[in-house]
Amino acid sequence: MASLSLREGVQEHLLLERPILQGHLVKDFSDSCLDRNEGYSIKYAYNSHETYWLNGKKFHLAPGESLFINLKYSKAYHFEASKLSRGLCVYYQEEELQDLFQVLKQQKIIDYNFSAFEQIPELRFERGTHLNQKLKSICSDLQDDHHKIDLAGFESILEEMLMEIDWEIIGYNRRLKEFNPSTRQALIRKVMAARRFMINNLHKALKLEDIAKEVAMSPFHFQRQYKKATGNSPTRHLVEWRIARAKELLEEDEHSVLEISTMLAYNDLPTFSKAFKREVGCSPSQWTKKNEVLSV
């Protein structure tokens, strides 16, 4: 049973419910998604800051942000907001989310497993994402008329959320479950910023100190937390991304192997060839020949 509720202050007004099997919408104002104790919920902050306590851990939402909550992990749930605050609460039963999940996976729109997804206690979506733009539009329509509901928009909320999720973030959340939500999300943002910095600077001879400075952390603390979140060291990821980029450049066939090694910040050709062979199982020249044969 999917449902949509409008929140004003700490009060929620159920606007509609959709039975899973019947597939049609039935209005019902008798319940609130705050009362649910299983399934999944999306909380959206429209015009003011909100504070959530999930199992004793404090979590802040700024206007325009949303929070996906797996209610299986959030039995001790509490919420605070100003009387003038407005927002949305969307609720889904597990069967509904799992069914859509499998459809999107079959269509190869998403590439992670539901078993990994359901282990995540919560996920935060920052302002500007497609999901939050859709939730903002729905909330804006309800500003003057509680019965003005974009049914097509409501139907696509769950799909937008699943498509918005990065598999890497799923893994980070799972590995950092012991951190409180605010600390976990702050750390994930730093890890993502570090990843972007490294990927955008594969042509530079980056040192650990350079990456740590970019995200305002000490080298020791950064490397420790990065590995805790991702399962690999920054150096390991740099090697993987450089070799992946090397494959792309070899396929383009516009540069020599020596030029590619220089473009990817390797000191000399032997060092690059050794790293490539360790990752791929053959030298760059051998990989190019195999690739040419396969493409014929």
Automatic annotation (TrEMBL):
Q: Which SUPFAM superfamilies match?
A: Homeodomain-like
The residues covered by the HTH araC/xylS-type domain are 192-290
Does the keyword field hold Transcription regulation? yes
GO MF annotation list? DNA-binding transcription factor activity; sequence-specific DNA binding
Task: Write down a Pfam family by its short name.
Answer: HTH_18
**InterPro entries, alphabetized:** Homeodomain-like_sf, HTH_AraC, HTH_AraC-typ_CS
Q: Which UniProt keywords apply?
A: DNA-binding, Transcription, Transcription regulation
Q: What is this protein called?
A: Helix-turn-helix transcriptional regulator
